[in-house]
Structures
1.
Amino acid sequence: MVGLENDFIIIDPDDQLSIVKKILKDEIQENNFYTDKPKAIVNFINKCKDEGKRSGDILPNKENRFKLLIYTKYEKYIQQENKLDFAELILLTKG
């Protein structure tokens, strides 16, 4: 299935939030700040996926630059970990 191993894991919204928090923690160590709340970033990711947009499909601007950075890192993380969120399942069926 679309670049996934047979033993992929479907994650729930709580798992999604935990992953975003982990990425943010790593980002703070690199850049020492962020302004968006983790839940707002999860909502941004899900909204983008609901619209059929991957992180590479979105043009960065002043308002979304940081959320987009986290979305890019989130996509990479869940792919490496062989995980899918609910929005990804829907996005895969549209493609």
2.
Amino acid sequence: MSERGEKMNLSKQSVALLLFAALVLGFSGAYAGGKLANSSIIQDEKHDNDLDGSDVIIDVPESMGKVAQTYSLIKENYIENVEDDQLIEGAIQGMLETLEDPYSSYMDQEALEEFNEQLESSFEGIGAEVSMVDGKVTIIAPIKDSPAEEVGLRPNDQILSIDEESIDGLDLNEAVDKIRGEKGSEVVLEIQRAGVSDPFEVTVVRDDIPIETVYPDIQTIDGKKTGILEMTSFSETTAEEFEEELANLEEEGIEGLVIDVRGNPGGLLNAVEDILEHLVPKDIPYIQIEDQDGEKTPYYTDLEEKKDYPITVLIDEGSASASEILAVAMKEMGYDVVGQASYGKGTVQQAVPLGDGSTVKLTFYKWLSPHGEWIDEEGVEPTIDVKQPDYYYANPVQVEEPLKVNETSEDIENIQQMLIGLGYDVDRTDGYFDEGMKQAVESFQRDHDIKPSGEVDEETSGLLATKIVEKVREGDDDKQFEEALKHLYK
């Protein structure tokens, strides 16, 4: 099983390894990383053992008779008619829910068909990957250039309600069903953000979600031509895009490379494997897989030697799963990893068909770093820890009564950070609204054709949030990127 160079090949038709952190909020509810699913799907000939749920035979405990008894009791006596499939699927979902594993789930035939359709096509939605964390639907990462990113949603944001309806008691799939929708339609999400006392609402207009995953650039740093490859997910085309863009950069004569997987929620295992074939030499594994018995199997590339130029990897709390496989492999090869600790998903799922078109996705394995470290729930720690400027973390403010001089609040503190981020002169950042802040608010209002009252009303607050999100998306003051470049040629 540990033969060097053995490949993990993609197959939608049989058992699959799942590597995405969770679900992506797309229209069809299928494929993660750009779409909607519990992790990404990989065929792994070394682990699948031709599993088929219809062929599984085990010793059934006597207590299973209670399941059949309950089924009969409901069918014969319940006040309303209940379909057989509804009861059976409910029993399956109930068993999976008792595992308390957000990555183990059930897909009926319709959901599976949508899943397969989405593997190769574009999709519509808000473009954010979510998971169930401590019983809350939680955003892992918004997708680059998606509506979710445009409105400023962030990793670890919790979704409390959808269109003013609480989602307490809903499972992940039920919540996602309510969020996804057609291009042009709106959905209102109530968000609880860490460090913010009160929830706030955002209105997201669903759109086509971009499927391009590799974004190249070249910059000259200290006289050296430097390649940048940003990857937003690991989809079917990512490895091919990476290989092509890397070859282009090398033809341009780059002397160093920055790989940016910030906000990348993961994807197909064979995609990151194919990418690591260009980076990790054959004398060390790029990953290890640990089975239920604790047996560890390393996997290797055929690469003779690593690149002859320096490489730095950028990560943050939205980097998950396949992104973490890449980051930790590069880290353990001695490359710098810059940013914030990653999400922390170190498990691998298999999708097992049940014979009727439905599928159970179940956690089968752990994936380990080349050195055998398990990063689950811990994430990959950067070698160089760097936070972004404070205004990157400023939160939207919902104003009921205008904020004004001599008031103090958490909302005012957020407004202060936004004003500073936008270049306005604010002396205080402690949440106290002084005369200097009033002048800064007036300047902002005049610059944006708002009557200069010096008070922060709903219009001013909303425009501040919009402008700060635009600035963050433009990458101004990107301290993590600056630090990555600084240390590339150290």
